[in-house]
UniProtKB/TrEMBL annotation:
Protein name, as recorded: ABC transporter related protein
InterPro entries assigned: AAA+_ATPase (IPR003593), ABC_transporter-like_ATP-bd (IPR003439), ABC_transporter-like_CS (IPR017871), P-loop_NTPase (IPR027417)
PROSITE patterns the UniProt entry points to: ABC_TRANSPORTER_1 (PS00211), ABC_TRANSPORTER_2 (PS50893)
The UniProt record lists the keyword Zinc: no
């Protein structure tokens, strides 16, 4: 059996219905329908460059114009005010800004206190620091608390960015290529941490990944995007097929589904 069991406790189901996102005069994502996504699950968005994966995340996070419905239980995230949506949804972009002199601890405290405009401060300075340290401790990076962000390695920066996304205790976690430019060790560490946090907090995680093997290893479900449209959605074995690889990526490939549920892709040439 695959080591990514789904949470059995309380939590709200997420479903995307007719989501379109992009620029006002140039839509990028068209009529995407995903779900239902149960709590404590990981959904990987995969597809070629320019497929609309990051645009979809930005739309769900409220960082880009979006239409449609994103139902978290009975609540439509798209219809919410930016303030209310930001209380439920956290977005981790592809990379932290360069040349940021803040320490990791200060950056996480800043993410906690930089809530939607008009929100009261979440707590006292001492309480905010304790909450930030608790998140760093959960991620195993307390030793980095006083290091400046611009001195961190790639893997350390990704973990610091994850701490910033988690510190406000979201219900939906949107991760844009959290393993990009990481070595195998740090890829495993980031994805294992995301899996464990999804279980512990009954999170819905939607993650953009370029590596199909990584997506098939860690995701409960995979959504394949191509040219802004959804081409497949389901378990790794259902969504990643030779036909989909041919139609979306333009490659001829063999797909091997193992008894433990894992899927391996071997590209044999261009279609």
């Amino acid at each position: 059996m695959r080591d990514i069991g789904i949470f059995d406790g309380a939590g709200e189901i997420l479903a995307l219905d007719g989501i379109s996102a992009g620029y006002r005069r140039r839509p990028v994502v068209h009529d995407v329908r995903l779900g239902p996504l149960p709590p404590a699950s990981i959904t990987a968005l995969v597809g070629p460059n320019g497929a609309g994966k990051s645009t979809l995340l930005k739309g769900l996070a409220g960082a880009m114009p979006v239409r449609g419905r994103a139902m978290l239980g009975s609540r439509d995230l798209i219809a919410m005010t930016p303030r209310d949506r930001a209380r439920l949804v956290a977005h981790m972009p592809q990379a932290l800004p360069d040349r940021v002199a803040l320490t990791v601890l200060d950056a996480v405290i800043g993410a906690l206190r930089a809530g939607p405009a008009g929100d009261p401060p979440p707590g006292t300075p001492k309480g905010d620091a304790e909450r930030a340290v608790a998140v760093l401790d959960r991620l195993g990076i307390t030793a980095l608390a006083l290091q400046p962000l611009d001195t961190l390695s790639g893997g350390q920066r990704q973990m610091a960015a994850l701490a910033q996304a988690l510190v406000r205790d979201p219900r939906v976690l949107l991760l844009d290529e959290p393993t990009s430019a990481l070595d195998l060790r740090h890829q495993y560490r980031v994805m294992a941490t995301v899996r464990d946090l999804a279980r512990e907090r009954a999170l819905q995680v939607i993650v953009v990944l370029h590596d199909l093997d990584l997506a098939c290893r860690w995701a409960h479900r995979i959504a394949v995007l191509g040219q802004g449209r959804l081409h497949a959605f389901g378990t790794p074995a259902e969504a990643v097929t030779p036909r989909i690889l041919h139609d979306v990526w333009g490659v001829a490939a063999r797909v091997d589904a193992r008894d433990d549920g894992r899927v391996r892709v071997e590209v044999e040439g261009l279609a």
